[in-house]
Design goal:
This protein is an all-alpha fold. It is built from four helices and no strands. Helix 2 packs antiparallel against helix 3. The N and C termini lie far apart (73 Å).
């Protein structure tokens, strides 16, 4: 009787998390907001469903399998969200008016201009020092090869 109540609460909680994710996907205005709605509540919802399974079957042999399922969800959800967000940002499928701070704007602008020097690094002055102050990485990415025309 108590197990049934616990399982019911866990299943309803998991269903509400999944419902919140679905509503967020349908109602949020842009890709970045939808990306969070698709990933954040889904991980917690899956955890609640897996806990309901563990309580219902009362078997310790099932716990490693359920834990493995949840760990794979924890590993793949952030990676997929990152890739979706990155692709959306690069293809301009986002609403800039909803961003309060765009930290990638300068980096993307530099990459579009073909600037080989990354942020915080200066070009090699030719005095034998690497671009990072002699810490071991050269301006050419550490390959030691010169680009065509002698430019590193």
């Amino acid at each position: 009787m108590v197990n049934d109540a616990i399982v019911s609460v866990l299943l309803i909680g998991g269903a509400l998390m999944s419902l919140a994710a679905g509503i967020g996907l349908a109602r949020f205005p842009d890709l970045l907001s939808r990306m969070h709605a698709a990933t954040k509540p889904q991980v917690l919802g899956l955890l609640l469903f897996l806990l309901a399974l563990a309580v219902e079957f009362e078997s310790w042999a099932l716990v490693p399998l359920l834990t493995l399922c949840w760990i794979f969800q924890l590993l793949t959800s952030p990676v997929s969200a990152h890739m979706v967000g990155r692709a959306g940002y690069r293809t301009r499928h986002l609403r800039r008016d909803l961003l309060t701070l765009d930290e990638l704007d300068d980096v993307v602008a530099r990459a579009a201009e073909g600037d080989p020097v990354g942020p915080g690094r200066e070009a090699d002055s030719g005095a034998g020092q690497e671009a990072d102050g002699g810490a071991g990485r050269k301006a050419d990415g550490g390959t030691g090869r010169e680009a065509p025309g002698g430019i590193v």
